[in-house]
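Hey, can you fold this one?
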Amino acid sequence: MAITNIGSINIDNVYRVDDFAAPGETLLVSDYARGLGGKGANQSIALAKAGSQVFHIGAIGPDGEWTREALQEVGIHTQGIRLVQESTGHAVIQVNSAGENSILVCSGANITLTQDQCREAIMVMGDDDWLLFQNETNLTREIAEAGRAQPIKICYSAAPFIAELVLPVLPYIDLLVVNELEAASLAAHFGGQEGGIPVPALLVTRGGKGATYSVCESPGHENAGNVLSVPSFDVSVIDTTGAGDTFLGYFLSSLDTGLDAMTSLQRASAAAAIQVSRPGAADAIPTSAEVSEFLARNPTI
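Sure. Predicted structure:
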C-alpha cells in the first residue's frame, strides 16, 4: 500500500516574537529560521516518518530545489514534483511566546499543477492506496474527480478552509480532515452540526483538546455510527506550526498500515505532542520510533 499526496511545498520563514505584530507596529524578532513547510510537504513528511511509502506530487521554482532534496532525505518519492518558472511557495510565520502562530502564505508554484500531472499520478495508484490532497494547490475538484474514477481511498485535508472550494469536493471523498474552526464553518452549511457534514468519515483536530473521529452509518464498518475521541498529551508547547499536519500524517499512515482507528488516534496524538514541543514545522516531526518511545513513557490516553 502507498499514499500519493498531491500537495503544496513551501519555504517557511519563521520569526519568533513576544507578541504578534499589530497594524502599523514594527517589532524586533528574537530569532529567525528558514525551513521546509507547506501543508502538503508537512503531511508527506509525517506520513513517511510514520512508516508509509509516500509519493509527493507538486511543483517548485528554481529557488526550491533544496526542498525536493529534503523530501527525498526522509524517503519520499519526488519524481512527481515539477520544476516551473514561478518561485517556490513560501510562508511568513510569526510564533509568539505561547507557541501560537500567525501565518501568511504566498502560493507561487503550488498553483501551477496541471491536470495531466495529477491524472498521471492517480492512474498508476493501486486499489488499496490512499490519495491525499489539500487546498494549498489548484485543481482540488479535478483531483477529487480523477481519484473517484479509480478504486482508491481519498482523504481531503480541507485547509485553508474556503467554502466554495470545499463544498463541491465533499461528494468524492472517503475521509475529510479539518480543525475545530474549519469544522464549525463547514457545519454551518449543513444545519450547524458536525454530524450533518455529508462525508463517510470525519477527523476533527481540536488543538489542546485532542481530536475526534466519526464514521457515518455503514453496515460492517468497525466504528459505524460512533465518535471516537482522544485528548491531547500534556507537554510544554514551543511551536504549534504543523501540529495538525503531523496528526493527520500519523493517523492516515496508521490506518494505511492496518491499525484500528483508536490506536491510530493515539499514535497521532503522541506525534503531535512531540512536534509542538519542538521549534519548527517539518523539522520537528518525530520518527515512528520516537512516537513508540513516547507512548511507552506516557500513560495511554
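The mean pLDDT is 94. Let me know if you want another pass with a different chain boundary.
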